């Protein structure tokens, strides 16, 4: 049990996370602040930015508003919770760094990545410009070692940084284009779990590749050094290998790189080639994730007719959250000048949601239903529209982002905008624990589960019993100890006869939902999300490799920007396990 005391509505597991990860400590490791003081620290620090802009609101009034939305847990932003107002002023969880095909670039990026990792932020890279293994190096007369060899170098470097005192364990996202000659090696790079342990990996899939898959055509792998065809392969064979690896180990993920660039709002600045560590934030070289999430269940009001969503309060908090994230850019400490330039030039932010499954359950809406898809679209359309309107107002106060003239906004009919993007949906795996709600837009993983292996949590295991189900079932009179014990073992109510059918539908869990519905939900949110989405397509243990292939094709056809699958028990260790074991 946490020793942290607070009058705020924070669950016990949330207090444990705050104590382990976010509250300030002295040199001896003693906690120095309460949650209230933490939120005061964040609000005061972020509001201080207003003093830079004489036409803006007073810092004092903004501080009051920021404290209100933070302490009420209507808005959460993870990295500022730890770093705002402290010596480490990096307020972004991840950056993307470019890599060119020469040692100066590769080792320069390695150095820059070390600076980012030391501050506790993760890094994404596109390794696609590095020539393939076996290609000759004219200056030495020796064959190149290829991108995978340099990924191992980057992996080892981050391990060293972690061991000498990184703020937190921050990893990498490695991306390789599907048309790179070393793509087969890349797909298999993590089949040995002892390799690239600090990397997530994703294949950047192109329209040309998906067209070749659908027509069962051959597909050319291109040497990035000279643009010549290196090898011709069967597109379906290549897709099969991606699916086989994901089926067995949950990696690689895939990103649809052409779909991502179709929605690049600053094409005049550059082309997007990579994403952040979890995949929800496509970024230009040197850009950062500036992310936060609206806690949806905090906007539900209980009435005699049921739970009603407060859309007016939602608008108020969205507007304040946009200002908060925009201020984060001014305060952020960037390890190198290029990061400062592009982040101040684009002012990209990503506001998302958490607790979506809770809202559905309270309102009696099954996750795998048309009503749920409709609510998803409504929530994100409202957020993006309000957020963009607030960004225009901020542009009146503080000016448009400097690269506005290189953006699509004039073509879209806007004459000003403070931020090049507004919305992103992150996984919120840790911050959702603080708020006591479900992560991101995921369904309930189970109604009882054990969470482990979180960064900086050590050996601490957190048993999660779904609070929404406990509350709703108690009102319905179906909360006997016997029923709760049964749920604690199996994690689901689907096969418990004593549970009414409508509750079984409302409290459907991740493994009760078909992969097709997981993808439909991601696509519904993506329709009105500027950036991208982290969501896992959970698949039953008995799912086939062809089932995984079908998920990729469906996600592409529905215009998702990427997709990750996880077949149950495909790894020996997983962060969430069903039941309170």
TrEMBL record:
<keyword id="KW-1015">Disulfide bond</keyword>
<protein>
    <recommendedName>
        <fullName>Vitamin B12-dependent ribonucleotide reductase</fullName>
        <ecNumber>1.17.4.1</ecNumber>
    </recommendedName>
</protein>
<feature type="domain" description="Ribonucleotide reductase large subunit C-terminal">
    <location>
        <begin position="92"/>
        <end position="566"/>
    </location>
</feature>
<dbReference type="GO" id="GO:0004748">
    <property type="term" value="F:ribonucleoside-diphosphate reductase activity, thioredoxin disulfide as acceptor"/>
</dbReference>
<comment type="similarity">
    <text>Belongs to the ribonucleoside diphosphate reductase class-2 family.</text>
</comment>
<dbReference type="GO" id="GO:0031419">
    <property type="term" value="F:cobalamin binding"/>
</dbReference>
<keyword id="KW-0215">Deoxyribonucleotide synthesis</keyword>
<feature type="domain" description="Ribonucleotide reductase large subunit N-terminal">
    <location>
        <begin position="12"/>
        <end position="88"/>
    </location>
</feature>
<keyword id="KW-0560">Oxidoreductase</keyword>
<dbReference type="InterPro" id="IPR000788">
    <property type="entry name" value="RNR_lg_C"/>
</dbReference>
<comment type="function">
    <text>Catalyzes the reduction of ribonucleotides to deoxyribonucleotides. May function to provide a pool of deoxyribonucleotide precursors for DNA repair during oxygen limitation and/or for immediate growth after restoration of oxygen.</text>
</comment>
<keyword id="KW-0846">Cobalamin</keyword>
<keyword id="KW-0237">DNA synthesis</keyword>
<dbReference type="InterPro" id="IPR013509">
    <property type="entry name" value="RNR_lsu_N"/>
</dbReference>
<dbReference type="GO" id="GO:0005524">
    <property type="term" value="F:ATP binding"/>
</dbReference>
<keyword id="KW-0547">Nucleotide-binding</keyword>
<dbReference type="GO" id="GO:0009263">
    <property type="term" value="P:deoxyribonucleotide biosynthetic process"/>
</dbReference>
<dbReference type="Pfam" id="PF00317">
    <property type="entry name" value="Ribonuc_red_lgN"/>
</dbReference>
<dbReference type="InterPro" id="IPR050862">
    <property type="entry name" value="RdRp_reductase_class-2"/>
</dbReference>
<keyword id="KW-0170">Cobalt</keyword>
<dbReference type="Pfam" id="PF02867">
    <property type="entry name" value="Ribonuc_red_lgC"/>
</dbReference>
<dbReference type="InterPro" id="IPR008926">
    <property type="entry name" value="RNR_R1-su_N"/>
</dbReference>
<dbReference type="InterPro" id="IPR013344">
    <property type="entry name" value="RNR_NrdJ/NrdZ"/>
</dbReference>
<dbReference type="GO" id="GO:0071897">
    <property type="term" value="P:DNA biosynthetic process"/>
</dbReference>
